[in-house]
Structure formats: C-alpha cells, structure tokens
Amino acid sequence: MKASTVDPREAAARVAALPRVTRFDHQPMVPPEGGWPVECPPFRDERFRSLWHRFLYVSMRVAQRSVFVMPGFLQRAVIGSLAFGGRIFDRRHTEAARTYIQAALPDATPAEVDVLIKKGWRHLLRMAVVSEGVSDAMMGKPLGEHYDVYMTPEAEELIASKASAIFVSAHAGYWEACTPGVIGLGLPAAYGIGKAPRNDFVAQHIQRMREGQGMRLIPRAGAMSAVPSALREGGIVGMLLDHRPRQKPVTAPFFGRPAACDRSAGVLLRRVKAPLVFYGGYSVQGTDPLDNWRLELRIPRVIFPDELSGLSPEEIATVINRELEGLILYRPDEVFWLHDRFKGAPAP
Q1: Could you read off the pLDDT of 27-37 as tens digits, one per residue?
Q2: Which residue range forms the structural domain that includes residue 228?
Q3: Least enclosed by CB within 10 Å: which of 75, 293, 314, 345?
Q4: What pTM did the predictor assign?
C-alpha cells in the first residue's frame, strides 16, 4: 500500500499499537562525549540584540521560571487563565485552530472542536513550562527512568545499529521534552534544524538549552550545507515538518486539504541516502509530566531511502504528511493546533 493512501486514523492506530521496547532503558541521557564533530552556522542573529530585546528575554525567563516553581494547582490555574485570555483576544490563531481541527477531525462536533481549541492554547503554554525543567529533571538519568519506549522492530534494529538518520516529528505531544529521550537511545551526535527567533538573547538561550540536552541546533538558512555533513559523519538530524514554511514551499495534501509543506526533506533526501525515522513524545495517559516527568516515546515508522527513490519533493511531502497525521491524531488533546496550517494554500 502506498503511504499516500493510508487513512490518518489507520496511521494513528499504528502509533497506538506499537510494542514496548526495554533494551534501551538502562542507557543514560547524556550529551555526546566527543561533542558535535560538524561545524554549524551560528544559531543567532545579532541584528536583534538591543536593550529592548534583552528586556523581552529577561521578562520571558522570569515568567517561565515563576510559573515553573509554582505549586501544581496554582500552575494549572495560571496556565488556564493565560490560555483563556489568548483564546479570547487572539481570534486569528483561535480561528486558525478551528480550521485545522475541522480538517484533521471532520467528524468532530462544534463542542468537541471548542474543547480541543481550549486544550491547544493550554498545551502551548505548558510547553513553555516544560522546556524550563527538562534538563534538570531528566539529563544524566537512565532513559527508562523517564520514558516508556515503543517502536517497530525495524526502528529498533536501525537505532541499535547507531546508523545516521533523519528524525521527523510534528508539534504534537511534548515535543519540547523529546530531545533527552532520543539522545537516551544511544544515538551518535544529534543536530536539530530550526529557525532562530528574532531575538538574539532568546536564540542563544535556546541553543544553550538544546546543547545541554545533547542536541546542537542548525539554523534553517544554513541547513542544506550542514545537514549532509552531519549525516556523513554518522550523526542524526531532527526536523519538525508539520509547520507552514514561508519560503519555496511545495503543495501536498495534509488531512485531505492542499497545504504548503517544507520542501527541505525532499531536497535533502536527494542529496543524502538516510532513512526517515518518525517519532513523537506524549504524556503517559492519565498522568501529568510536570508532576512525575514520565513520557511515552513512540517511533511508529522508518522509511528507507529506496522507498522514496524517484519521487518528487511534492510526493515525498505527501508520504511524510501521512505519517505526521498519525502522530497528531494519536493524542489530539496534545497538539499545537494554533498555527495557520492552510494559509495561502489552494482551496480544498
């Protein structure tokens, strides 16, 4: 069966049905001993480094830390209040979430859509709090102390071989807490592709945080030269590919609607022959990661280079989207629904 014909619900069911794997549980979550052998462009933009930017950065850090150290009941109350304000006053993102949810879950009632919009706002704010505590809570500990790992036999074999690969995920689950779990699989040097914020102080903070978790960031503008080198040196590269790119996108179906998609994965796969490993990190059902720092790490699919041989960037984007849909629908109450996923795309 071609991946482009897989129903998103079937892909989500595949994520849910993965077997538990314990062979990596004893491995420590630590940065690579030899560092990162490939030089990367600096993840920063010194144009955005004024006193105003510093003030915004300090304000952000104070707010994050203040909410993080609050007792659980107060923390949840503050997040709920901020989410309510965002939902009411930022109508553009609220309506973007409604469109996105209706595309992903066409059978959902208006009341169910409203519930997911509320949860989407709360989940976004929880990510800011989670990112504050991941390094202190998890790094240096055995993987099994904080993650239950589920994956296919093909993924287990590939990861055990420590082969280079491109790890692909979506803004679903607790994506800010996935890096220690991926590093804990015993993989070689890890790199991640991202866009540096337009605040150099924030960008440097994110770089320090990610390197403390074992991943070096590559700015999107320099990815096409740095990523092939990282893969040739045996590293892994992480990408979040469910966003709407702003430059040179390709159009491919996403939840049955035309959507602008990142062409970089398709271009990279033409340059390097590396497998795609799809993964997601989620809360353990019924528990709050901020209370116990336990998560599920799920790896439902590996796509090897020969499966994509000869495909155009649009066709590769379609294959990738089907897997991302499964990661999103596995736990729709833990999804960043708020970005305008279909803006600028042709009408459905």
Answers
A1: 999 988 888 98
A2: 3-49+142-330
A3: 314
A4: 0.93
Contact present, 200 and 46 (Cβ < 8 Å): yes
What are the tens digits of pLDDT across the range 62-104?
999 999 999 989 999 999 999 999 999 999 999 999 999 999 9
Whether residue 219 contacts residue 196, with contact meaning beta carbons closer than 8 Å, is answered with yes
> Positive or negative, the Cα torsion across 135, 141, 146, 148?
positive
H/E stretch holding 289: helix 289-292
- pLDDT, tens digit, 9 for 90 and up, residues 133-146: 999 999 999 999 99
Q: How far apart are the C-alpha atoms of 170 and 196, rounded to whole Å?
A: 18
Local structure of residue 308 (DSSP, 8 states):
G
Find the mean pLDDT for residues 3-28: 85
Crossing angle between the packed helical segments 72-89 and 110-138, to the nearest 10 degrees: 130
Q: Residue 58 domain-assigned?
A: no
Q: How many domains, the chain?
A: 1
- Which residues are within 8 A (CB) of 96 and not within 5 positions of it... i.e. 6 or more apart? 337, 338, 339, 340, 341, 343
Interval 234-274: pLDDT, tens = 899 999 999 888 778 899 999 999 999 988 777 777 778 89
Q: Rounded to an integer, what distance in angstroms lies between the CA atom of residue 222 and that of residue 270?
A: 17
